[in-house]
Amino acid sequence: MCAQFYEDMEEILLESDAIQARIKELGEQISADYAGKEVILICILKGAVIFFSDLARSLKVQCQMDFMGISSYGDGTKTSGIVRIAKDIDCSITDKHVLIVEDIMDSGLTLNHLTQLLSSRNPASMKIVCLLDKPERRECVIAPDYCGFIIPNKFVVGYGLDYLGRYRHLSYVGVLKPQVYTP
Ligand code: PRP
Predict the structure, then answer these.
(1) How close is the Cα of 159 to the center of ligand 1, in Å?
(2) Active site amino acids
(3) Is residue 68 part of a domain?
(4) CB 3.0–4.6 Å: which of 15, 43, 57, 119 could bond 52 by disulfide?
(5) How many structural domains are present in the chain?
(6) What is the pLDDT of residues 135-158, one digit of tens each?
(7) Is residue 132 included in any domain, yes or no?
(8) Interatomic CA distance for residues 136 and 134, integer angstroms
(9) Ligand 1 atom closest to residue 134's alpha carbon, by position in its atom list
(10) 133 lines ligand 1 (CB under 6 A)
(11) CATH number of 77's domain
Protein backbone atom coordinates (compact mmCIF):
# COMPACT_ATOMS: atom_id res chain seq x y z
CA MET A 1 0.00 0.00 0.00
CA CYS A 2 1.47 3.35 -1.01
CA ALA A 3 1.61 6.32 1.34
CA GLN A 4 -1.65 8.24 1.36
CA PHE A 5 -0.46 11.44 3.11
CA TYR A 6 -3.60 11.85 5.23
CA GLU A 7 -1.60 13.99 7.66
CA ASP A 8 -1.29 16.72 4.99
CA MET A 9 -5.06 16.88 4.46
CA GLU A 10 -7.55 19.15 6.15
CA GLU A 11 -10.40 17.08 4.75
CA ILE A 12 -10.99 14.08 2.49
CA LEU A 13 -13.41 15.42 -0.11
CA LEU A 14 -13.89 12.28 -2.22
CA GLU A 15 -12.97 8.82 -1.07
CA SER A 16 -11.52 6.40 -3.57
CA ASP A 17 -14.64 4.20 -3.59
CA ALA A 18 -16.90 7.15 -4.40
CA ILE A 19 -14.63 8.21 -7.28
CA GLN A 20 -14.59 4.69 -8.73
CA ALA A 21 -18.37 4.33 -8.45
CA ARG A 22 -18.94 7.65 -10.21
CA ILE A 23 -16.48 6.75 -13.00
CA LYS A 24 -18.40 3.54 -13.58
CA GLU A 25 -21.60 5.60 -13.99
CA LEU A 26 -19.88 8.04 -16.33
CA GLY A 27 -18.53 5.13 -18.36
CA GLU A 28 -22.02 3.69 -18.76
CA GLN A 29 -23.48 7.03 -19.77
CA ILE A 30 -20.71 7.80 -22.26
CA SER A 31 -20.85 4.27 -23.70
CA ALA A 32 -24.59 4.64 -24.27
CA ASP A 33 -24.22 8.08 -25.85
CA TYR A 34 -21.48 6.91 -28.25
CA ALA A 35 -22.96 3.49 -29.03
CA GLY A 36 -21.82 2.31 -32.47
CA LYS A 37 -19.22 5.08 -32.76
CA GLU A 38 -15.48 5.23 -32.27
CA VAL A 39 -14.20 7.88 -29.88
CA ILE A 40 -10.84 9.60 -29.70
CA LEU A 41 -10.10 10.13 -26.02
CA ILE A 42 -7.74 13.04 -25.45
CA CYS A 43 -6.01 13.08 -22.09
CA ILE A 44 -4.94 16.53 -20.95
CA LEU A 45 -1.64 16.02 -19.19
CA LYS A 46 -0.73 15.86 -16.53
CA GLY A 47 -3.65 16.14 -14.14
CA ALA A 48 -6.11 13.98 -16.09
CA VAL A 49 -3.86 10.94 -16.36
CA ILE A 50 -5.32 8.92 -13.47
CA PHE A 51 -8.94 9.73 -14.30
CA PHE A 52 -8.26 9.06 -17.99
CA SER A 53 -6.93 5.58 -17.38
CA ASP A 54 -9.82 4.59 -15.13
CA LEU A 55 -12.48 6.17 -17.36
CA ALA A 56 -11.05 4.53 -20.50
CA ARG A 57 -11.30 1.12 -18.86
CA SER A 58 -14.95 1.73 -18.03
CA LEU A 59 -15.92 2.39 -21.67
CA LYS A 60 -17.65 -0.23 -23.78
CA VAL A 61 -17.27 1.54 -27.12
CA GLN A 62 -14.31 1.41 -29.49
CA CYS A 63 -11.81 4.13 -28.69
CA GLN A 64 -8.36 5.45 -29.37
CA MET A 65 -6.19 7.39 -26.96
CA ASP A 66 -4.09 10.46 -27.51
CA PHE A 67 -2.36 12.88 -25.18
CA MET A 68 -1.99 16.62 -25.04
CA GLY A 69 0.38 18.47 -22.78
CA ILE A 70 -1.02 21.78 -21.65
CA SER A 71 0.11 23.94 -18.83
CA SER A 72 -0.95 27.32 -17.64
CA TYR A 73 1.34 29.62 -15.82
CA GLY A 74 0.17 30.19 -12.27
CA ASP A 75 1.36 30.49 -8.71
CA GLY A 76 0.87 26.82 -7.89
CA THR A 77 -2.66 27.17 -6.51
CA LYS A 78 -4.48 28.91 -9.36
CA THR A 79 -4.48 29.14 -13.15
CA SER A 80 -3.37 32.35 -14.85
CA GLY A 81 -5.29 31.72 -18.06
CA ILE A 82 -2.14 31.89 -20.16
CA VAL A 83 -2.01 28.46 -21.77
CA ARG A 84 1.05 26.83 -23.27
CA ILE A 85 0.84 23.72 -25.45
CA ALA A 86 3.80 21.59 -24.55
CA LYS A 87 2.74 18.53 -26.55
CA ASP A 88 0.12 18.32 -29.27
CA ILE A 89 -1.87 15.19 -30.08
CA ASP A 90 -0.34 12.89 -32.68
CA CYS A 91 -3.51 11.90 -34.54
CA SER A 92 -5.82 13.78 -36.89
CA ILE A 93 -9.23 14.45 -35.34
CA THR A 94 -10.88 15.66 -38.53
CA ASP A 95 -14.29 13.95 -38.86
CA LYS A 96 -13.69 12.01 -35.61
CA HIS A 97 -15.67 12.00 -32.39
CA VAL A 98 -13.48 13.63 -29.77
CA LEU A 99 -13.88 13.39 -26.01
CA ILE A 100 -11.54 15.64 -24.05
CA VAL A 101 -10.73 14.19 -20.64
CA GLU A 102 -9.79 16.62 -17.88
CA ASP A 103 -9.33 16.32 -14.15
CA ILE A 104 -10.79 19.68 -13.18
CA MET A 105 -12.54 22.70 -14.62
CA ASP A 106 -11.85 25.79 -12.59
CA SER A 107 -11.78 29.19 -14.35
CA GLY A 108 -12.54 27.27 -17.57
CA LEU A 109 -9.84 29.22 -19.42
CA THR A 110 -7.75 26.16 -20.25
CA LEU A 111 -10.62 24.25 -21.83
CA ASN A 112 -11.98 27.36 -23.49
CA HIS A 113 -8.66 27.80 -25.24
CA LEU A 114 -8.30 24.12 -26.00
CA THR A 115 -11.79 23.62 -27.46
CA GLN A 116 -11.28 26.60 -29.77
CA LEU A 117 -8.01 25.12 -30.97
CA LEU A 118 -9.37 21.61 -31.52
CA SER A 119 -12.59 22.87 -33.17
CA SER A 120 -10.51 24.43 -35.90
CA ARG A 121 -9.44 20.88 -36.89
CA ASN A 122 -13.06 20.03 -37.74
CA PRO A 123 -13.90 17.02 -35.58
CA ALA A 124 -17.26 15.31 -36.21
CA SER A 125 -18.12 16.10 -32.59
CA MET A 126 -16.32 17.27 -29.49
CA LYS A 127 -17.32 16.91 -25.87
CA ILE A 128 -15.64 17.41 -22.51
CA VAL A 129 -15.64 15.08 -19.55
CA CYS A 130 -14.10 16.31 -16.33
CA LEU A 131 -13.95 14.59 -12.99
CA LEU A 132 -14.28 17.75 -10.92
CA ASP A 133 -16.01 21.04 -11.60
CA LYS A 134 -15.77 24.27 -9.61
CA PRO A 135 -18.47 26.32 -11.35
CA GLU A 136 -18.25 29.20 -8.89
CA ARG A 137 -14.74 29.94 -10.17
CA ARG A 138 -15.72 30.21 -13.84
CA GLU A 139 -14.34 33.16 -15.80
CA CYS A 140 -15.80 32.26 -19.22
CA VAL A 141 -18.90 30.57 -20.60
CA ILE A 142 -18.07 26.88 -20.72
CA ALA A 143 -19.36 23.76 -18.98
CA PRO A 144 -18.40 20.10 -19.15
CA ASP A 145 -20.70 17.74 -21.06
CA TYR A 146 -20.03 15.08 -18.44
CA CYS A 147 -18.98 15.87 -14.89
CA GLY A 148 -18.02 13.56 -12.07
CA PHE A 149 -18.51 15.86 -9.12
CA ILE A 150 -19.26 19.53 -8.52
CA ILE A 151 -16.98 20.64 -5.72
CA PRO A 152 -16.63 23.78 -3.58
CA ASN A 153 -13.94 26.37 -4.12
CA LYS A 154 -11.23 24.66 -2.09
CA PHE A 155 -7.69 23.79 -3.12
CA VAL A 156 -7.78 20.07 -3.82
CA VAL A 157 -5.09 17.51 -4.57
CA GLY A 158 -4.98 13.81 -5.30
CA TYR A 159 -6.27 11.52 -8.02
CA GLY A 160 -4.17 13.40 -10.59
CA LEU A 161 -4.29 16.85 -9.06
CA ASP A 162 -1.07 18.21 -7.69
CA TYR A 163 0.55 20.81 -5.56
CA LEU A 164 4.00 21.58 -6.99
CA GLY A 165 3.98 18.19 -8.69
CA ARG A 166 3.14 16.23 -5.56
CA TYR A 167 0.06 14.25 -4.41
CA ARG A 168 -1.07 13.23 -7.93
CA HIS A 169 -0.77 9.53 -7.10
CA LEU A 170 -3.27 9.57 -4.22
CA SER A 171 -6.36 7.42 -4.77
CA TYR A 172 -8.66 10.03 -3.17
CA VAL A 173 -9.25 13.79 -3.52
CA GLY A 174 -8.41 15.83 -0.46
CA VAL A 175 -8.22 19.42 0.66
CA LEU A 176 -4.67 20.31 1.51
CA LYS A 177 -3.97 21.93 4.86
CA PRO A 178 -3.17 25.62 4.20
CA GLN A 179 0.08 25.30 6.16
CA VAL A 180 1.33 22.87 3.51
CA TYR A 181 1.26 25.57 0.82
CA THR A 182 1.79 28.72 2.86
CA PRO A 183 5.30 29.33 4.15
C1 PRP B 1 -5.13 22.22 -14.25
C2 PRP B 1 -6.16 21.22 -14.73
C3 PRP B 1 -6.75 21.93 -15.92
C4 PRP B 1 -6.65 23.39 -15.54
C5 PRP B 1 -7.99 23.85 -15.06
O6 PRP B 1 -3.97 22.03 -15.00
O7 PRP B 1 -5.60 20.00 -15.08
O8 PRP B 1 -6.03 21.67 -17.10
O9 PRP B 1 -5.71 23.49 -14.48
O10 PRP B 1 -7.94 25.19 -14.69
P11 PRP B 1 -8.78 26.33 -15.41
O12 PRP B 1 -10.18 25.83 -15.60
O13 PRP B 1 -8.72 27.48 -14.41
O14 PRP B 1 -8.12 26.69 -16.69
P15 PRP B 1 -2.54 22.60 -14.58
O16 PRP B 1 -2.25 23.84 -15.36
O17 PRP B 1 -2.47 22.72 -13.09
O18 PRP B 1 -1.55 21.48 -15.12
P19 PRP B 1 -1.46 19.91 -14.71
O20 PRP B 1 -2.70 19.24 -15.24
O21 PRP B 1 -0.23 19.45 -15.44
O22 PRP B 1 -1.35 19.82 -13.21
Answers:
(1) 13
(2) 106
(3) yes
(4) 43
(5) 1
(6) 999 999 999 999 999 999 999 999
(7) yes
(8) 6
(9) 12
(10) no
(11) 3.40.50.2020
